[in-house]
Amino acid sequence: ADRYHWQLEAWAVFSNHYHWISVSPTNAESLRPFISHLHTQTAAAALNKLDGTPGRKVWFQFWDTCLTFEKSYLARLNYVHHNAVHHQLVSVAAPYEFCSARWFTANADPAFRKKVQSFRYDHLHLPDDF
Asked: Cα(51)–Cα(39) distance, rounded to whole angstroms?
């Protein structure tokens, strides 16, 4: 993310998909190269190496959304932090190690954390049936 000037705000990674929220650089044209690099590196260096399947395509698609409303941004922050709970991998988000929830719980300004956590994430209409 740093290489492509994207500031990560929240992330959750799973075996078959991921979510992340970030602040884009002024010129967001680096999104496709960033995604391409992310997919190549995570597939080759991590997933395929672990499975012994070099060259396998791991990530098949992505879609992006430009969040322009504060309430939408805050609800999605909460959603991404709790996505492991949504997928029933954990009962509490913070212990899931492949997510920013632990960092957010420990480091975010308490007032901001409370504000984010006040937004319901179970009513968002996001494609997430993985």
From this structure: 16
